[in-house]
Design brief:
Layout: H1 4-9, H2 33-37, E1 38-39, E2 42-43, H3 61-70, H4 77-93, H5 98-115, H6 118-135, H7 141-153, H8 157-170, H9 177-187, H10 191-204, H11 208-220, H12 224-236, H13 241-257, H14 261-274, H15 279-291, H16 295-308, H17 312-324, H18 328-347, H19 353-363, H20 366-379, H21 383-395, H22 399-410, H23 421-433, H24 437-450, H25 458-469
Amino acid sequence: MENDAMEKEQDTAPEDAPGKTFRPRRRLVVGSLVGCLALGGGVLMWLPGGGSGQRAPAPAAGAQAATAVRAGVPAALSDLAVLIDERESRVREHPRDARSWAVLAAAYVEQGRRTAEVAVQYPKAEQALRTSLKVRPRNNADALDGLAALANARRDFRAALSWGEAARKLAPKRWTTYPQLIDAYTGLGDYKKARRSLDRLLALRSGPAVRARAAGVYWERGWREDAQAALADAAAGASSPAEQAAWLERAGQLAWERGDREDALRHFQEAVRLDPDQRAAQAGQGRALAALGRTSEALSAYRAALARQPLPSYALELGELYESLGLTQAAHVQYDLLRTRVRQEAAGGVDGELLLGRFEADHGDPVSAVRRLRAEWRRQPGIAVADALGWALHRAGDDKAALGFALIATDRVHGGAVHSAPYLHHLGMIERKLGKDGPARRHLREALQINPYFSPLLGPVAREALAQLGEVPERPLPE
């Protein structure tokens, strides 16, 4: 029976029964979520059995983490460590237990993601998944799902699609396959198939993890209110503090992308309160605090995130913050860390070309950035790559070619419906260089309306460029 254990272990409330399609509830807004979650310093919990006040006994740490990783839900780092110890012992005693090998691999992937130790954990996950397939070469959807998830984590979307489709053909009603297909299709720029995969997922399953997944697709389609409502529902229905913190962190990202610094900060702070290991939320705090002018606190938040999860993207953000403050030497320390971490992640099979291309375009060699990103576009033509390649071409002086890619990244026909301040800033600056003052003025103004704080370095550049373009010149009416 497909997803049999997860059907029993998770989301058993009537409103989350399989087959019921989730519809975003617009009445619940993200901005008020944090206040609803906390009461007197505690978290509101739904108690089964009406008003008896009796809590069901909490599952053991390893069992809770196993349920989470099999469903693609964030788990606490301490619970993951327990799960890994348990499953490593299990496969030593029962080396032909294919499911335990697959669960162990999922735990390795999640631990690698949460700690940035991907050079160690991702190869271990791949070995465990290959072993699972070796001991059960047929009807092993657990291992196929795991290989798809690992490939997505490595940004190898073609491999993720191949494994995900193999899992779907083997078990079409296995709901955990569809999130992997959504990520793979999105990374490859096939947004229609990503949306169809979401529709299939919603027809099979509801629950917090599905709602959070839907929120990402809604945001990419430009459905901002639906995305916010879906994440609010996901956080309210989370089954653990680590899961709730993860959905709050994503809600904070959405608040940040729409330029609401205070709301973003509230979500990030609540996420860290619930799960002190939520490093993405700590980096988000740095982003929001910098925009609020609380620079010392912002630097501390970034350093805390990097100390325990040294992701190259955090190093880039912190380096640009230092550079905006005139601290060039400190910025270059972070840029060197970025290069080092990308090399280390490559040893774990992670494709860092998109991030390196973005970095080189603004802080290194734009020609090298173009070369990297053209190759990435041929492999994985997603919206993020189109935007980065367009900007790299602009920085390298080829604005005519740059305009085509910038338009792809912002054109609804090609899937670029997301309201992204950086993307519109890039488009406006390219148009300005080409002498298209009207469109440039419109797109730069729109970028700053969406999020005037989108970058400590490029935000001021956008404002200066818009000021130089001036207001729309008055023209006499035709006779």
